[in-house]
Amino acid sequence: MSGTIRSVSERFDFTGDELAPAYRAAVDAIEAGDLVVLPTDTVYGIAADAFKADAVQRLLDAKGRGRDMPPPVLISVVESLDALATDVPDDGRKLCQEFWPGPLTVICHAQSSLMWDLGETQGTVALRVPDHENTRELLSRTGPLAVSSANKSGQPAALDVYDAEEQLGEAVAVYLDGGQVTGGEPSTIVDLTGDTPRVVRLGALTLEQLRAVVPEVAAQDDEAKPADEAKPADEAEPADETKPADETKPADETKPADETKPTEEPVEASKSETDDEKPTDPDVRPAD
């Protein structure tokens, strides 16, 4: 039966040249509404089809978190930004062009025509393009994925597949083993829904790096908070969790970060999609 928790999880090597079985198993699981754990450039993430509400709920249940902490969405290319987000300011585009693929998550107004349910997003969505070649290839095959850090809520984010498997167990259908992640630090989250880009959570990218591209980037409350003090949004480029942009407070793809390991990442999402307004971007698929 599609979308049910499987009695046995499968693990696949996600490195080297023999990737065909891993891609096939992951795509099949996503299409069935099941969960997949995958590596990114920051931490391991737990992924679900962004356009299947029951799959997203299964992701939240596996982590032990509520709909008030919606997961961010990973995409394969920067060109997919406008298929999922609207009213993206020029300064925000500059940041995406400079740091994607990479550890930057941006909170944008979601396209109102999209049919998905990521949780209580207040009409926003957190987006990122991970700097992991094999994961981007998987995203090009599945379309946008809701991805949160691969850990139980409140626990450190997994830096290898075995840690993720120990925490999430058989709630996940397919584990993709990409070895130890080299990043280990959550993505930096920037809110693009206001007049000026504003840091919601500092992570792998510093405020100085952001301002080197867009000098007007504002730190939250005039003073950016470190990752372990930011209110989670949720990341797959992951850390631990962020509330919707208009409710974020210092404390973020969406999930709070641990002092020694990242936890997860923030997000915000969307509304409904009409049949004649389905997105045409190859990275975006209408709801089943």
TrEMBL record:
Pfam families: Sua5_yciO_yrdC (PF01300). Keywords: ATP-binding, Cytoplasm, Nucleotide-binding, Nucleotidyltransferase, Transferase, tRNA processing. Residues 20-205 form the YrdC-like domain. It catalyses: L-threonine + hydrogencarbonate + ATP = L-threonylcarbamoyladenylate + diphosphate + H2O. It is found in: Cytoplasm. The keyword Transferase applies. GO terms for biological process: regulation of translational fidelity; tRNA processing. Belongs to the SUA5 family. Residues 222-288 have a biased composition (Basic and acidic residues). It comes from the Bacteria. PROSITE patterns: YRDC (PS51163). GO terms for cellular component: cytoplasm. Its EC number is 2.7.7.87. This is L-threonylcarbamoyladenylate synthase. The keyword Nucleotide-binding applies. GO terms for molecular function: ATP binding; double-stranded RNA binding; L-threonylcarbamoyladenylate synthase; tRNA binding. It comes from Kribbella kalugense. Signal peptide: none annotated. Residues 217-288 are annotated as: Disordered. InterPro entries: DHBP_synth_RibB-like_a/b_dom, Sua5-like_dom, TC-AMP_synthase_SUA5. Its main location: cytoplasm.
